[in-house]
Amino acid sequence: MNCFKCWRxxxxxxxxxxxxxxxxxxxxxxxTTRRSSLCLRGGHAGxxxxxxxxxxxxxxxxxxxxxxxxxxGMPVESGSSAAARQAKQKRKSHSLSIRRTNSTEQERxxxxxxxxxxxxxxxxxxxxxxLLDLFSQIEREFENLHIENLELRRExxxxxxxxAADGQTYEGGDLAKxxxxxxxxxxxxxxxxxxxxxxxxxxxxTSHSTSQLSQKLKxxxxxxxxxxxxxxxxxxxxAVCQLVREYVGHRDGIWDLGVCxxxxxxxxxxxxxxxxxxWSIETGKCLLKYVGHQGxxxxxxxxxxxxxxxxxxxDQTAHIWRYMVQLPTPQPVADVSQTPCxxxxxxxxxxxxxxxxxxxxxxxSVRVAATTLRSHQGxxxxxDWLVGGxxxxxxxxxxxxxxxxxxxxxxxxxxxxxxxELTHCCTHPTQRLVVTSSRxxxxxxxDFRDPSIHSVNVFQGHTDTVTSxxxxxxDNVVSGSDDRTVKVWDLKNMRSPIATIRTDSAVNRISVxxxxxxxxxxxxNRQVRLxxxxxxxxxxLPRSNRQGHxxxxxxxxxxxxxxxxxxxxCGFDRQAIGWNINIPALLQEK
Length: 590
Fold this sequence. Notes:
single chain, 590 residues, globular
């Protein structure tokens, strides 16, 4: 007597009248799985105390088919029926594709569920069932990824054969480092002789379409394996991105930093400890401390032509103050990346590494502002100078941005329209344009080039708080958001971004280099990444227990005119870091 027959004869009439779905496991879908599930549930497996018999029964039930078993009281099928069913299952196995069907996954989950029911456990049945479902989903995800990887590898092999047939070459054995190049691209790198140029043939249309296909496939492959490739890029990133100096002295996290554009060139930092500090870039020594605010200093910007600084604070004001500093004698730059430390402990949770004893308390202080701007009803989160330095703009949590006259301290315009708190503001380097960011997932472009018309454009492309939006030298705006994306926009076409960068962590205050337009992204996860305007990742700044930021990175700022440090970052580990980025080597690796 087999299981199918057993189910029909032994089951009482009262049970037979129930809907068929109530007698089955919720994960069972195929006919063979329903039989095996009922056999195990009906006690034919020998009960919980016969684990060897249960094991023999489970070995008989393969995923996708049901075999015959004779142990533990399991009914045995006749030879003819067993042979017929094996032949049927053999034909079925040949028709299966590489991907598992839903019925196969449900059969396996049904068998695993029955096996769990036959074991002792103190967990409630509902909890055990949920755990099994979760583990099954995880297993299916890994199987799908593995299958996709195999299929992609086969496609790459086929593509390489087509490229070889069409006269194209593939440089490098690693897809992350190599590049698909045609003969035309190779000619730009190695200029052929006159005789060689005569024998070269233009690629056909088939070659052009193949090149497009290769580029599309390469982009897909790089996107799906970005996390794996990042581990291989870390070694080369260290060669072109080196930590030069650390600026330690604040007693709390550093929100913002900037580099002045006039001589002497100094680094400025704004901290939650109610202070703003000016640093010598070459020596790392604190030159001056501004202590005029009564709240957290959230932003610092330098005047384009004079020795003045603009700071925004949580005390609902913005201050303009003058400074005079004298740079100390430069010292030899030590290789901080190779400097050994006492231990290899991650200081991300330690508060002792604030460096208060290194001398910032001995530097001179400025306590009184030259100009105080008061009009906001909330925290002033950011401020910036307009081109020319005669006006400034401030952004506040009162959902407004204010435009002030520097000489009179009078409010010129109040820019309203955002639905939630503002997070950042930035001005164009050469035109009277202002961009404001907000928690309402938008950023707005304000145009003051025409004194009689003040137009505003709204950019909608993010799904979370826009943490910053900055101008480039051209007609582009780059925006970063808590939705883990960075978007590049064209001011002439604001409907959709021209490039989108997707990351694994929220992005804070970004910066774009002037000459090469390299975007520096500071992240909540303590990483700093470099991208170009097309969205191609160039490098990741090295970070470990020995070097780099130990907490959230809040801001980045470029200073390409400085030979020693051309990129600066700051974070909530109470320090600012100066980096040397070898930009030519970085672009060459791309």
